[in-house]
Design goal:
By secondary structure, this protein is mainly β. The chain is built from 5 helices and 26 strands.
Length: 331
């Protein structure tokens, strides 16, 4: 992520409260739409299947994506809620695109609709993988997925890029057993999210010895409820990485019972442009394991949370599922 006037403007714009298009999804039998590149389904592209769903859809609709590499850029508008996007596995059902440079245009898959469940799909942005761009100075923002909506869950999905891989921008989100790969700010935004049992792969060797950053969370104020919680995850990779840097002054990230390999830099965290104002930042680790779980060399301003503070963040029902939306999604 580049700390630019464009990204600052977009962040402010999307963080403004909007009139919610969210609605309850009916409990009727779920309709299934099949996407198959070989022609053995209703559609051969994911976007055409999404477009076929009625505006203001209020019954769960499953888009079943058959194995294949779908080279397309997909967008789900806010008026298309109540969708289950279901693939075979994240390794053989892949939606990918190659575009970089604009924070509001680069994402392979952009989601604005509420009440969405995604399972067993891989999302990639291959822009920075091209040989002509394998230079630290040529890397650009290239999101694999952008989520700017509420009540969204992901299971056994993969998100792969180099910079800004997962734009976890706004809303309450749950990620379980997912794989997330990148080098620079590869989980960023102002989402309110729990990452449960996920694999975080820092592919920072591309940076030629420079350290990368896993998170760039953008909490805006002390009363803002957002933050990223990594619970029972695993952090590895091929080069040095910070756990996070502060995209906004009240940035909040917690690693709980997570394995931290030796690629994590000893100081752990970076205040970025908030040097001297670190007191408002909430970065914390609790009960983590691994060679870099030793916090003796961490930045002095890392927080130690009380039992109640920690519990309110790591408990799914306290932090993101207050109204039970997660358990109301189709099994």
């Amino acid at each position: 992520m580049q700390y630019s006037l464009l990204s600052t403007f977009l962040f402010a714009l999307l963080s403004v409260s909007r009139v919610s298009l969210s609605q309850d999804c009916g409990n009727k039998e779920m309709r299934t739409i099949v996407v198959d590149q070989s022609g053995h389904g209703q559609f051969t592209t994911v976007q055409k299947a999404i477009d076929s769903i009625p505006v203001k859809n209020n019954n769960w609709t499953r888009v079943l994506v058959k194995p294949g590499i779908y080279n397309e850029k997909v967008m789900v508008h806010a008026d298309k809620p109540c969708i289950v996007l279901h693939g075979n596995s994240a390794s053989d059902t892949i939606i990918q695109w190659s575009y970089g440079g604009d924070v509001d245009k680069s994402a392979t898959f952009t989601l604005f609709a509420d009440n969405i469940k995604v399972r067993n799909i891989g999302f990639k942005n291959t822009y920075n993988e091209e040989p002509s761009r394998r230079d630290r100075n040529l890397i650009k923002q290239a999101a694999a997925f952008q989520v700017t909506s509420d009540k969204v869950s992901f299971y056994q999905c993969a998100f792969i890029s180099v910079q800004d891989t997962l734009t976890d921008f706004k809303g309450r989100h749950y990620f379980e057993d997912c794989y997330i790969e990148g080098a620079i700010d590869f989980i960023w935004g102002n989402g309110q999210s729990i990452y449960q049992g996920c694999t975080i792969n820092a592919s920072t060797a591309i940076l030629g010895g420079s350290s990368g950053y896993i998170t760039a969370q953008g909490r805006d104020s002390a009363t803002d409820t957002t933050g990223y919680v990594f619970k029972e995850c695993s952090v590895g990779g091929n080069g040095p990485v910070y756990l996070g840097r502060a995209y906004r002054q009240y940035s909040r990230v917690v690693f709980y019972k997570t394995y931290l390999s030796n690629i994590v830099v000893p100081q752990g965290w970076d205040p970025w442009t908030y040097v001297g104002r670190e007191g408002a930042i909430t970065y914390a680790e609790s009960e983590c394991t691994g060679p870099q779980a030793d916090k003796s060399k961490r930045v002095q301003w890392e927080k130690t949370l009380s039992g109640d503070e920690l519990y309110n963040l790591i408990d799914v029902n306290k932090f993101i599922n207050q109204d039970g939306w997660l358990y109301n999604q189709p099994f």
